[in-house]
Write a structure and sequence with these properties.
16 helices, alpha+beta, binds calcium ion, six-stranded antiparallel sheet
């Protein structure tokens, strides 16, 4: 007989199962914890899961072993105990964590109910590879799992870590709450955070907007936007690169920040800029490329994006300068956050400080790996949930961020994400919160996951809309699958739903969302092949001109759909990554934005720019509730296939466009659409996007193929 898995489920009970239930005698079991035996006072069997009730509580600072005989035993894991209410009642804390600094004293707090002892280590130097720097060791004291110490000195400029005696090991860990870190994130840094603000930051605030549907998001990478020589940006690959004004290509067309402003988007979404692993990018020598979805220190910025990664304040100051520069140009900054996994589970502070708590485990005790990155964090455990909430609130307040894009949000539990929204609402309702609601194979029941299928339980959260993405361009997992914009037929009714942000419009036209604000409409982002590369696969027989029409068609649909559009930087000038599907470690030559290509495709850029402007000027494109959609949007009957046409009644009485007609014709040929009576002015077709009428139409309108047509009337 073998014990398959034994778990401590309460402080005085153990649950286990065995491979052969008929083969053993229950009274024979005994338990050892902290070198003593604990008596079993009762037991019961529920579907071959046996529970033992112990005569006293297990000491969770020490291992616990369940014995049948000297050959048959199992060490008990504590994962279920850490998740239970009894544990939370005793150890969950809302006390401040991390470092509190002022000039006269510093106080350090770290949470680990399983640690036997914790020391604070203070260093003069931040580089862990410099072995000449020996730490001063200061003992910390514990109250209910919270370890703290106060040092009555000005510790500014020093570095710190924690030395934790846990699970029979002495671990050295960076404070997970560290707000400043040393080179390569090796140690926490003691700095005066107030001194990191650039001039003018005290008066800076997030960008205002009335509704989230008023935003147009532009995803970019700090590195990619400025590393190409033709960007004309001095601080190549740095936060400061995005603060430079008057940067141009040799054709005298703006790049970087000026270009982003010129395009007219409202928010940038910035790929990881928290401190990611030194194994992904060595901050001392950042020649290797990595996107940075490899979290190391959640609350500090990445060093390789600063001009001096050796200075803990520099990276903070320069990131704030970048945010300030965007805000001065009326652009919000959304941060891509990655709380769903850490780069390396074993060496991460979470695991070094409190083994087994911060990561999710499968029923058999193995690590859950729904992220496919080796580990999933356990947001359902209250102190992990608290960490995520604390961390995002810290970023929002300290850096004046405008929003968060939650990577693999479907790994997290619904309650954590709703709590985040609730806390952000208290701070500033303008802060955007949206993420990837994919349903991944993580060890959390489906009804608890923050996925698209549970979006009705997350009414104020936005979701990357893969329904519209795949409808437009084809299934993302197949390079050759076509979608509406690339020639797949019979998608009309589904495209009607996409046009309404996949909201629950009617019995026939419906999607998962309660509101258009839940739908982040996109085709391309950093993941998967670029739209232009995809068209090279799906429409390889066509001319470049035809493929460009399809690209324009795709972006035209995104910008005229209800919901929140998200563009990937460079898609508006047909950016290519040479067909590479996952360029996370591809060199700069693949990833960097080629600004001369932008110059080459400037007509395409102009088309997108005008469409963004039309969207921003006319509120009909930006309805914010399902009721507004139901009351103001009607579909027109179109006898031809592969065509969708609808009319949006203006809800804004000051808008001279009383009705807007939008037509998506995916055929290669023109299609007649019968408009409602009156005179309609065409402003956008497949060739041109304009703020002014191009032509007037009554009755039948001939909508050109592979293109969006937008018309309006004033009565
Ligand atoms: Ca780093």
């Amino acid at each position: 007989m073998n014990i398959i898995r034994a778990s401590i489920t309460r402080f005085n009970s153990i649950e286990f199962n065995v491979d052969n239930i008929n083969d053993f005698n229950l009274v024979q079991f005994y338990v050892k914890n902290r070198d003593k035996s604990i008596n079993i006072i009762s037991h019961y069997n529920n579907n071959n899961i046996i529970t033992l009730v112990l005569s006293e509580e297990v000491d969770i600072k020490y291992p616990c072993t369940l014995y049948y005989d000297e050959h048959t035993f199992a060490s008990c894991d504590y994962y279920k105990l850490f998740a239970c209410e009894e544990f939370n009642a005793r150890f969950f804390t809302l006390d401040e964590l991390g470092l509190y600094y002022n000039e006269t004293f510093s106080e350090f707090r770290v949470w680990s109910p399983v640690a036997i002892s914790v020391n604070l280590l203070i260093y003069n130097k931040g580089d862990v590879t410099d072995l000449t720097s020996k730490p001063t060791k200061i003992q910390m004291s514990e109250i209910n799992g919270l370890w703290s110490v106060r040092v009555d000195k000005n510790l500014k400029g020093r570095f710190y870590t924690y030395e934790i005696n846990v699970n029979g090991n002495i671990n050295e860990a960076v404070d997970p709450y560290a707000k400043a870190v040393s080179i390569n994130g090796g140690r926490g840094a003691i700095i005066d955070l107030l001194k990191t603000d650039p001039i003018g930051f005290e008066n800076d605030a997030p960008i205002n907007h009335e509704n989230f549907s008023d935003t147009v998001i532009y995803e970019l990478s700090i590195r990619d936007i400025s590393t190409n020589k033709n960007a004309g940006i001095k601080n190549s690959g740095k936060f400061l690169g995005l603060t430079e004004k008057n940067t141009k290509t040799k054709n005298n067309i703006p790049t970087g920040l000026d270009y982003i402003k010129y395009l007219g988007i409202t928010h940038v979404q910035i790929m990881p800029m928290f401190d990611f692993s030194y194994k992904s990018i060595d901050e001392k020598n950042p020649y290797k490329y990595n996107w940075g979805y490899d979290p190391q220190n959640y609350n500090a910025p990445e060093g390789s994006y600063s001009t001096n990664p050796y200075s803990p304040s520099c990276r903070i100051n320069e990131l704030k300068q970048m945010i300030l520069a965007f805000h001065k140009n009326g652009i919000g900054v959304n941060m891509d956050v990655v709380y769903n996994h850490v780069f390396e589970f074993k060496s991460h502070s979470f695991e070094l400080i409190f083994p087994g708590y911060y990561f999710r485990h499968n029923e058999d005790g193995s690590l859950s790996n729904g992220t496919d990155c080796g580990n999933d964090t356990a947001s359902e455990n209250l102190m992990m949930k608290r960490f995520i909430v604390d961390s995002m609130l810290f970023w929002a307040k300290e850096y004046h961020l405008d929003g968060f894009r939650i990577d693999l949000m479907g790994i997290h539990d619904i309650d954590t994400i709703n709590t985040l929204r609730h806390k952000l609402n208290i701070l500033d309702r303008n802060i955007m919160l949206y993420g990837e609601g994919w349903n991944l194979a993580t060890s959390l029941s489906n009804d608890k996951k923050a996925t698209i299928s549970n979006s009705s339980k997350l009414p104020e959260i936005g979701f990357f809309n893969d329904i519209t993405r795949d409808l437009l361009q084809g299934n993302v997992f197949s390079k050759i699958d076509r979608g509406f914009i690339s020639g797949k037929e019979d998608l009309e009714s589904k495209i009607m739903s996409s046009a309404l942000g996949c909201t629950k419009y009617s019995n026939f036209i419906s999607g998962p969302f309660l509101s258009p604000l839940q739908s982040i409409n996109y085709i391309s982002c950093h993941d998967n092949i670029t739209l232009w590369d995809r068209l090279m696969f799906t429409n390889s027989q066509e001319s470049e001109e035809n493929r460009l029409e399809r690209l324009k068609f795709a972006i035209g649909i995104l910008l005229t759909c209800q919901g929140i559009p998200l563009l990937s930087s460079g898609m508006e000038f047909a950016i290519s990554k040479g067909g590479i599907e996952n360029s996370f470690i591809s060199p700069d030559e693949i990833n960097s934005i080629d600004w001369e290509r932008r110059d080459e495709y400037i007509e395409l850029v102009e088309y997108v720019k005008v469409l963004i402007n039309l969207r921003k000027t006319h509120s009909g494109f930006r309805l914010s509730t399902l009721d507004d959609i139901k009351n103001n949007i009607e579909f027109l009957f179109v006898p031809s296939k592969n065509t969708v046409a609808f009319i949006i009644k203006s809800i804004d009485i000051t808008d001279s466009w009383h009705n807007i007609a939008v037509i998506y014709n995916a055929n290669q040929y023109s299609v007649e659409v019968k408009l409602t009576p009156g005179t309609w002015k065409l402003v956008t077709n497949k060739h041109v996007a304009s703020n002014k009428p191009i032509s007037s139409h009554n009755g039948l309108f001939l909508a050109e193929g592979i293109g969006v047509s937008v018309l309006y009337n004033t009565h």
